[in-house]
Each structure stands twice: as structure tokens, then as C-alpha cells.
Design goal:
By secondary structure, this protein is an alpha/beta fold. The chain has 11 helices and 8 strands. The structure holds phosphoenolpyruvate (PEP).
Length: about 250
Amino acid sequence: MSRTMLIAGNWKMNGLTADGEALARAVAAGSTGVGCDLLVCPPSVQIGSVGQVLSGTPLALGAQDCHAAEGGAHTGDISAEMLADMGCGFVIVGHSERRADHGETDAAVQAKALAAYRAGLIAVVCVGETEAERDAGQADAVVAGQIGGSLPNDATAANTVIAYEPVWAIGTGRTPTAEDVQAIHSHIRATVSASHGAEMANKVRLLYGGSVKPGNAAELMALADVDGALVGGASLVAEDFLSIAANCS
Ligand code: PEP
């Protein structure tokens, strides 16, 4: 099964307008010849300015979160429809920082993924275990539980990307071994196969996230069940992001 790889940059809450524009410009300028899909997810207030820079380039634009509702009395929130209106094609849902900082449950993440589908966006659904859960031998069970609770029944390979991001690897410079990444990605595919069928499981893109850097990307991107990366820190440096993307095939 050939799946087009996706390298996604999660800029988190970094940079001001000029920084985002410059970063987007540099990524777009260096992306010629990259053999996979590229996505950047700026802070929500920069979606408009970054979108203008990316207009006419092959880079996709995404958001880092959305509200589940289409509109209404939700101060400070942004709907999936608003993101689509601003030119987004993707939205990350259930990032571990949202789960931890905002108490987002699997049910809340599922509702956000459904909102993404309603607005015509592709949901990047994030899952991943904590260090204590891995140490307790519970990583597979935790991730399967998150998939079960966060992935809507309506999820397809066309409207969903799954990102496996062990919480303990995010922003720490630590990663699981390549063998561990392959094993849990294979487990995720089997879990999705059981819930959504073999076709979806074979086609859905599974990204690895957690301290992906130019120095470890080749090994991680070569794994059979890894279809790209969700990149945090290294996506803030165009050269590093593009160097990671150079490992796409
Ligand atoms: C992330 O937060 O999605 C992430 C993977 O961050 P980092 O690459 O910095 O570990």
C-alpha cells in the first residue's frame, strides 16, 4: 500500500506575524522537489497572514485546534468552519498539550474531529502515552483506548490522519527506538482495522511525532508504518523542517 507521506509543522504558540510570514516564505521557497505533502499549522492569529504567503504554493495550511460547535457563545474559540473559511485544509485535534492544558477528553477530541469533517477539513487526530504509562507496559492499551474514544465512526483515510506522539518524547529530545515506533504504529493500524476496517487501516496516514529532528528523521521515516511526521520544535527552523521532509519518498 503506497501512502503519500505528510510532514506537518506544528508551530504551537511561537512567533509574531512577521516571524510566521518569514518562516512560511522560507519553507515554501525550499520545498521545490520535496516528494511528499507538506503542512504548516501556525498560531490561529497567523492563519490569515501565513495563508497569504502560501497562496499558490503546494504547501497546505492547518490549524492547531478547533471548537466542536459551528458557532455560538464560545468566547475565545474558533470553529472548524472559520478555519476552512481562512483557507485551512487540516486541523490538529487532541494534541497532548491540549489534552493536558485544557483537560480535553477523548470524547471532546472526537467531537472536534467530527467538526473538522463537517467543515470539510482533514482532522489530524493525536494520541500517545505518558512516560509512566509506557513504563507500566500500558502504551499499547492507552493508545488503543485513545483511538477508540477519539476516532469518529465516520473517520476515513481521506478525512483523517493519525499522529502517534508519545507525550514523553514531545519537546524533550528523546524518542522511542525505531523498533518501538514501528511496533506501536503497527498496533495502531491493527486497532484501526478492527474498528474501521482493513481498507481504512491500510490507507490512513500514521505520523510519528516527538522530537523529530534532521538527525533522526531518516531512520524514523523509513519505518514501514510511519507515513510522515508531526514536527514541533524543528518546524520553527525552515532548514530543519525541509531537511526532515527530504526523507520523504
Ligand atoms: C509536537 O508537539 O507535536 C511535537 C512533536 O513537538 P516536538 O517535535 O518539539 O517534540
